[in-house]
Amino acid sequence: MKKPFLNDALLLLIFSAVILALPLWSEPFGANYPDLLQKFAIYGIFAIGFNILFGLTGYLSFGHAAFLGVGSYAAVWSFKLLTMNAIPAVIFGVIFSGLLALIIGFLSLRRSGIYFSILTLAFAQMSYNLAYSVLTPITNGETGLQLARADPRIIDRMFGEATSAGLPITDLFGEPMSGYPGFYFCAVLLIICFFLSLLIFRSPFGLMLKGIKSNQNRMKYTGLNTRPYMLTAFVISGMYAGLAGSLLAVTDPLAGAERMQWTASGEVVLMTILGGAGTLIGPMLGAGLIKYFENIFSSFDNNVLHHAFSFLPDSVVDFLVPVVGLFVGSGWNLTLGLLFVIVVIFLPGGLVEGFNRIFSLFTSDRKRDAQSVQAPNQAGE
Question: Is residue 51 within 8 Å of residue 282, measured between CB atoms?
Answer without folding.
Answer: yes
